[in-house]
Amino acid sequence: MRVLGVDPASAGPTGFAVIESDGRKYRVLHYGALKIAAKRQKSSAGAALRDVHELLCKLLEDFRPEALAVESVFAALNLRTALRLSEVRGVVLLAAEQHGVTAHSYSPREIKSCVAGYGHADKRQMQLMVRALLEMNETPEPTHAADALAVAVCHLQTRRFEERFGVGKNGAAAVRLTRNSRETAAPGHATAQRPPGIQTRQ
Question: Which residues of the chain fall short of a pLDDT of 70?
Answer without folding.
Answer: 75-77, 166-202
